[in-house]
Design brief:
Blueprint: E1 15-19, H1 25-37, E2 53-57, H2 68-71, E3 73-77, E4 84-88, H3 89-95, H4 98-106, H5 113-118, E5 122-124, E6 138-139
Amino acid sequence: MKTKSLKASEISKEWYIANAEGKTLGRFASEVAKVLRGKHKPSFTPHMDMGDFVVVVNAEKIGVTGNKESNKTYFKHSGYIGSTTFTKLDHMRRTKPERIVEKAVWGMLPKNKLGRAIIKHLKVYTGPEHPHEAQQPKELNI
């Protein structure tokens, strides 16, 4: 038996659309990360960008469990001394709700060049409208 490793020219990428309305953040983000990484394909190769494009709509309607709405904080640091910023989930939901899904998915991807290339295939929008109709995205059942 020989192990088949795909070449970059043999990889086919598809477009999927995922509706975040009424979904739990962590469970939804793990399924989106799996499709972005390409783990749903039988020809998955860990060191290559095998994944598909995912368009997430209704990001502002994603749900969380427990007291996370008021207790969960996001950390940001610019690199300068004393420049730490903590943002609560409810504040981020009011100002930039698409970042909630982006940060959750980014936390489930590898932290290297491959992960930085994969996260560019994620498109997140707050409402049900998106500019990717020309790609004819398939419905992603999560």
